[in-house]
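Hi U.,

Before I forget, here's the chain from the pilot set. I'm dumping it here mostly so it's searchable later in email.
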Amino acid sequence: MSYIEDELFGKLEDEEVFLFTLKNNNGIEVKIMNYGGIVVSLNVPDRFGNFADIVLGYDTFKEYLQDTSYFGAIVGRYANRICEGKFTLNGKMYQLPVNEGKNHLHGGIKGFNKVVWSAEPLDTVNPAIKLSYFSKDGEEGYPGNLSVLVKYTLTDANELKIDYQATTDKPTIINLSHHSYFNLNGAGNNSILDHELMINADYFTPINENLIPTGEIKAVENTVMDFRKPTAIGKRINENDEQLKFGLGYDHNWVLNHYDGNIRPAVQLYEPKSGRLMKVLTTEPGMQFYSGNFLDGTITGKNNKRYEYRGAVVLEGQHFPDSPNHKNFPSVVLKPGEIYKQTTVYQFQAD
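Structure:
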């Protein structure tokens, strides 16, 4: 039987933070809190019907307050990197906070992952919650009052569906995404190097040594970036390749095929031992694949497990990094009267 439950998870100053449990009729369960819109846990079965929590995170709210890895969060206003935190819009240059080396990352010092969202459980066929947040003009340096809605739905087709919507009263830029770290063995269990990945993309956006796109859109053919057929993540990750050296592994944006604003298959991730298969569908033009290169065993997560080097993957449906500074990339500008919409779906199977 599907259901939604909520419980008090913590407090931030004078705001209460709740943990919402969504469960479908097949036993799949996701826990989401309204701080950062964070997916705290996601339990799915393997081929034998054994359930495991496949996303990295923490046991307590206090640990999430100290988190710097964006575990499970909604990231924005701008997911990914903006070079030196600078962009020009309608002739005016904006300076955003720089919070990762020379770059602005995932919305800045206090992005959407560090705020309390208003939450409303929805009385729908499938268990769902709606999160809303009002980002004031000038927050983290961004122009415009931005009203944001994010809806999480857990369907009986074993899908975690994330719908995003936003409006502004002044021209601004926006690029929202979801930042769960997945390990289909179960969070904290082994590396993801044996996971087989397929990305429906003929091109990717190369980066420089600061992890910023050069502006080139390059074919994946005959490169370590070719995941058009299922390929073990570890197969080429340690090759002597400039792009892998810059990213310390995979930390790149793929240009997804057939972009027209409609949802379509983008990624497939398979773990052979458990038989768990995750498919990602998105309306977005890009997919950031990050192979957990900065995990180093110093973070202790749920159930006292250490999160080791390359112990998870992040797969973010998004617009391209640093798009405001590259005219050849799809636009991320949102104007008054327009509605920003995005949908990404994580679909789970086992075989």
